[in-house]
Amino acid sequence: MPIKGSPDAATLLREYSQAVRETDRLPLHDLHPVLYGLFGEVGSIMTVAKKHYRESDAYTSYQTAIEEEFGDAIWYLTALCRRLEIDVDAVFQKIFDQDATSAGAAKDPNIRPDAAASLPGLSSNLEALLLRLGEATANLLSLDRSRDRGLEKLQSFAGVYVGALQASNVSFAALLRSNIKKVRGRFARADLELLPTFDHGSPKDEQIPERFEIHVVQRSDGRCYLQWHGVFIGDPLTDSIADHDGYRFHDVFHFSHAAILHWSPVFRALIKHKRKSDPLVDEAQDGGRAIVVEEGLTAWVFSRAKSLDFFKDRVTLSFDLLKNVQQFVAGYEVEECPLHLWEQAIIRGYEVFRSVRKNNGGIVKCDRAKRSIQYRPFS
User: Fold this and answer.
1) Which residues lie closer than 8 Å to 299 by C-beta, 6 or more apart?
2) Which of 50, 54, 185, 353 makes the best surface tag, with the fewest CB within 10 Å?
3) Separation of CA 81 from chain center
4) Strand order, beta sheet including 372-376
5) Which of 24-33, 94-103, 122-131, 257-266 has the least mean pLDDT?
6) For helices 9-20 and 172-187, what crossing angle results, to 10°?
7) Count of H helices and E strands in the chain?
């Protein structure tokens, strides 16, 4: 649900509030979790600034990180407004209407908001502004359900927030759009038909099959073999580690990626369904580097899962893990997949993995149309 081409900042904020409403899963009757979250995000803004101060130009992801943290902060501010029954655009209205200069900025929300430039006492020095932002956030911790007092405190916070945003050279509209994509990708469930897919325009023998069934067989020598249509595919695998942890069955995760994400350069290579009819796609999306990325990602997630009983009884994953996954695949087509789809692919894949590991093999059934993966033991 992207923000439309809004005529002013007030409209932009109203559209933002509507777009993220369904991602607010915190209790509506309790201010405290939201206040804690806002306090934490302002602390994260300061942490990013501290890293930039310490590392300077070596901190190459500074601009992206600062935009993300400012976006998370406004998510919590919007959630707070929702609980106090205050329109978030009303909180910012005085700032964007301060004078002719700020009104001009409000008419073009794609530029960084210059509204704070005319606010009395605000310095353009980011360090000073961040200290004031921390004070303004602390002042919110004493909020109660009084609407008038709440509006006054929120407006005070918003003034300093916009000042710090300006000093950070972050586009107001850009951070709202980015935050919508982030939180909806994490928490909002999309229609299956609206989720990305990557090869329907390719010849049939270059597509991931709509349905496929893989037999995972462990022989007496402890090696794992894969069979598709009765034919062995890939190389036999061992755990390749002293601590036998079942990694020999890790191809299950590639099957899950293929079925749920509609992406797996490893699985394409196994069944020889690389998109060779398009040399650019074959090289950039199905080639050796993409295969290494998926294998590396799978091994990294496995190292986290191993310490968490392979995600047993978990219905959700940490946001940090999912964001790391997203960074891992940046630049590849699968980066279009929302985080909640990655979460489903990982959790469902590990459900099947645990069954395969427990039984030393079995049948893995995948349905790409339903974006599902299931386990069935051998008869």
Assistant:
1) 247, 250
2) 54
3) 24
4) 231-237, 224-228, 211-218, 361-367, 372-376
5) 94-103
6) 10
7) 14, 5
